[in-house]
Each structure stands twice: as C-alpha cells, then as structure tokens.
Description:
The chain has 377 residues and is of the alpha/beta class. Helices cover 43% and strands 13% of the residues. It has 14 helices and ten strands. It has helices spanning 27-40, 54-64, 80-88, 102-109, 113-129, 146-158, 175-188, 204-213, 235-244, 257-268, 289-297, 324-333, 340-355, 362-371; strands at 8-11, 44-48, 71-77, 93-99, 133-139, 163-168, 192-197, 218-221, 285-286, 315-316. It has an eight-stranded parallel beta barrel, surrounded by eight helices. Strands 9-10 form a two-stranded parallel sheet. It is elongated and about 80 Å long. It binds 3-methyl-2-oxobutanoic acid and zinc ion.
Amino acid sequence: MNLADKIYIFDTTLRDGEQAPGVALTVDEKIQIAQKLDKLGVDKIEAGFPVSSNGERKAAKELNSLGLNATVLGLARSVQKDIDAVLDSGLDYIHTFIGTSPLHRDYKLKMSKEKVIETAVESVEYAKDHGLTVEFSAEDATRTDLDFLKRIYNKAESYGADRVHIADTTGAITPQGITYLVKELKKDVNIDIALHCHNDFGLAVINSISGVLAGANGISTTVNGIGERAGNASLEEVIMSLKLLYGKDLGFKTKHIKELSELVSKASGLPVPYNKPVVGNNVFRHESGIHVDAVIEEPLCYEPYIPELVGQKRQLVLGKHSGCRAVRAKLNECDLDVSDDTLIEIVKKVKKSREEGTYINDDVFREIVKSCNYKKE
Ligand code: KIV
Ligand code: ZN
C-alpha cells in the first residue's frame, strides 16, 4: 500500500463539527473535547473560527495555552480581519480558505479567477509575514477546474503556504475522482496535501482514505462525523479503518474513542445513531440466536475486532431472536442456574414478552426467571 510514513489527522470537531446546525459549544466544552482529542493522539485541532465571536477567540486562546501535544489552529477566510483575529488569539497556526469553484467565484465571492488568486495569495503572504504556519484550503476544490486548482495551489505554495487542503465541500467527489485529483496535484504541488471530505453521499471516509492512498498525507476529521449537513469524515472510522483494514496504525490510543464520542454527543446535543460504525451502541451487541451462539464460542465470528479496542463492551441482548444459548449466558451473568426444562420455559417467555413490546432488561429478565418458579437447582 502506497501510504505516506506519517499521516496527519487534522481534527475539526470544534470548528466544522460545531457548524452543524444547532450546535454551540461552550469554551469549557471545547477545552474538555480538545483534551480528549489530544489524549487520543490527533496531530492538529482546529479550535474554531476566531473572527466570528469573542467566545471563539477566548476558546482558541485557552486551547492554545493548555500545552497540548496537538497543534492548535484557527480558521480564517482570506480576509485580513479574520487573520488578525487568529493572531489576536495567540495562535501560531492558521487555516485560510477561499472558494475556487465557478459556483463560489460567481455567486458567493463575485470574483474573477485572477481576483480569487490575488486575494488568496495576499492572505497567505500576510499570515506568513506575521509568523504563522499556513494551511491553505481551496473551498469546493472538487468542483473546480483542475488547471485553476493547480494554479492557485502553486501560487499559495510560492507565497509560503506550508500545506494545502482539498476541500470536498459538498461531498461531491468519488474515491476514483479523489485518486485522480491527488495524483494530478502531486505532479505540480510540492508541499503536503491534505483532504477535507464531507459526507453528503456517505463517501467521506473512503474518499479520505483514497486520497491518502493516492499520496496525500493529511485527513480532516470530526468525532462522530458531525459537521455541516451530512457531516465530515468520522475520526473514529478513519483511524480504525486505516489501522485494521489498511495496516496503517497511526498510534492512536483507541480505547478512548467511545468516551470521546459520548462527550461530543452530549456537548453537541447530537445523538450517535445506534448503528454508527465504531461508536454506536449496537456495534457490539448481539441478539439473534445464530449470532449469539457463535459469539459465545468466538466473538470474532460476528465482530471485526474486540470492543475493548475502542472502549466499547460486548453485550448479549435478549429478545424475540434469542435462543437457549443466549439465555443460559444471561443466567450465568446474573449468577442463576436452572434445569434445561426451566431454561426452555424462560426462553419462550423472553420471546413472548419481547413480541408483546417489553424490552428485556435485567430486571424484566429476573422477573421472568422468577415466574418460571426459579429456585436454586
Ligand atoms: O468544507 C469546507 O470547504 C470547509 C472550508 C472552510 C475548508 O470547511
Ligand atoms: Zn467543511
């Protein structure tokens, strides 16, 4: 596999993640999340958009003073006052951007191609002159004509940008498209290339991975995949796929993933879907008889990896699909022992109760066992 030795994870939960409609993180919440991101092992944390409010500037300042291992960056449009706000926050790293696609040039910026380039390089130059390390994003890069994209990245590079990002702003590219794009850009761009993929078609993770397989060396992520519209490439899915499917261990302390996911869900008010890969509550829960039977023998029959790796726990759930094996396992867990006949009776009652709408939690299960005249046998 043609992967760079070092792949940087640029986490933007606190910026793009917070841009998800309805989300507003307090300074304290940003601090708690940043500390956990740092403990997990991300390389870069985008703290927010300092020009947008006092709170954002305060958060950026405080994050910067935490002494994290991760680099803390602030976002800025290619506008001097935005860059000044990043400087006021005391940050040494900036992420500047400008829209490059015809849609952004014509409708949003109302700028010619030349004006877009001029504006972008002025801001890169200004940021560099003020001592900042600069990561430059072409917004809507994936819907930008390739020649123009190459020109603007080359210009940014010649004015001192340290890294460029390909922003797939509307999640509109395919894995094949991003592969082609990165390979083309690598012919002309000599600085690092990173990916910022949105999930509008559910392809953010595979697009990010395809991009690094094609030679990029940075991926922008968010915890739980939160962010604008359908969100961003999910941090947990990216690092676990790279580690276990592509053999690229980024050295993350993955056992902290679940607690980070819960913290972000609580702070953002955005629930994690039960079936969300890696962090969803159902990812290591099993109910159907066939699966439970096999999992009791060998969990890997129906799990791609053990739950503890990501701070999750395996759970056998009783319900209408349960068989004797699952119920026996639950009895053992509750320190109860019954004869085979009683076991069959309990299984029948478990199925019936569930079909009648009762969720079989531990208390309900004990009631069922009692109703089958349970006595220690
Ligand atoms: O999606 C996007 O284009 C962005 C930019 C600010 C880089 O988030
Ligand atoms: Zn984005």
